Amino acid sequence: MIEGKAAVAREKSQPLEIVDARFEAPRAGEVLVRIVGTGVCHTDMVVRDQGYPVPLPLVLGHEGAGVVEQVGTGVTTLAPGDHVVLSYGHCSRCGECRSGRPGYCVEFYDRNFKGSRMDGSQAVCDAHGHPLGSAFFAQSSFGTYAIATERNAIKIRSDVPLELMGPLGCGIQTGAGAVLNALKPPAASSIAIFGAGSVGLSAAMAAAAVGCTTIILVDLHDDRLALAKELGATHGVNAGKENAVERIREITGTGGADFTLECTGNPKVLAQAVEALRVPGTCGLIGAANLGDCASLDMNTLLFGRTVRGIIEGDSVPQVFIPQLIELWRAGRFPFDRLIKFYDLADINQAIADSESGRVLKPIVRPASGANA
User: Fold this and answer.
1) For a tag site, which of 163, 167, 190, 211 has the least CB within 10 Å?
2) pLDDT by residue (tens digit) across 266-321?
3) pLDDT score for 139
4) Which class for 104: exposed (0-12), middle (13-18), buried (19 or more C-beta within 10 A)?
5) 372 vs 366: CA distance, rounded Å
6) For the whole model, what pTM was predicted?
């Protein structure tokens, strides 16, 4: 066992508790990663608040980045010292995984939201030996170490700032991948993105990178809309001050946008995103809602050729897509670092509060101030 710290969700909707923790050595197919930085994502908060009923207590965190310390038996693609970004868990065996769609793995929920390894065992315990829920997104990376699998630990080049890279494993790859991998808008097309958080802004940067000429961000915060324009958006719409659907139709002049993207997880916003489409058009849904939340749509809105599709993890194959995003960032075409603010792990509840209030777009917590490889 290796000693360290972990941030634990013990009770529904309560602050996370920083505890002394012990981490197992990696088993077959696993790797032990020393965490350098982990992004705070909306899904962490959904689970903390039990919108997804993952058993508590649980070590959260699913946008980890760090250095491989140990590898388990059978691991062939990673070695101690490798820099990795931790992404989502998948089985690699089912038809969806084998066809290049691991985000739709038949075991996706269990491998990411079960709160344990697939066999029910835990990789982490507290200082008294009591097991802590782990394997959240096959990592549980709010701590000094994480146990991940060889499949979801993505080796990256070692000459980029590792502490920045964790959010590429989930939120940023979700927003960018929704555009680059799923919707695939052609050059000169229009897209309206509902929600100017880190996911929506990542989508906007991706839309600019592929040549969309009308990129509309919809949000309630003028400062976020201003940043969106700096990152490539052509228009910003404050939905608290004007009718977003009417404004999108006015901007496009074609009855709506070619593509829309719902990033908030709000059922009413999803309805707006569908209504804001031209005929035909496609709406991508990537916002995480609580289980059981339902949206109401006029069936005739879809009858005339509009499409609504869900998108998990940006339709990405992380081993391929995360290095691509890093290269776009190095070329200055995907400046996701402008979304980030760093916090010490001890201040994780402040990081979460700042994210929930909208003060910070993408917090990253580090086990030690200034931590790096």
Assistant:
1) 211
2) 999 999 999 999 999 999 999 888 888 888 888 888 888 999 999 999 999 999 99
3) 98
4) middle
5) 9
6) 0.94
Lowest-confidence segment of 42-46, 131-135, 295-299 by average pLDDT: 295-299
Angle between helices 198-209 and 222-230 in degrees, nearest 10:
30
Number of Cβ within a 10 Å radius of residue 255: 12
* Best CA proximity match to 351, nearest among 42, 19, 144: 42
How far is residue 337's CA from residue 233's CA, in Å, rounded to a whole number?
17
Supply 82's token pair: 């490798």
Question: What's the rounded Cα separation, in Å, for the pair 106 and 182?
Answer: 19
Q: Cα(first)–Cα(last) distance of the chain, in Å? A: 22
pLDDT digits (tens, 9 = 90+) for 8-38: 999 999 999 999 999 999 999 999 999 999 9
Q: Is the Cβ–Cβ distance between 124 and 24 less than 8 Å?
A: yes
Residue type, 155: K
Burial of residue 223 (number of CB atoms within 10 Å: 0-12, 13-18, 19+):
exposed
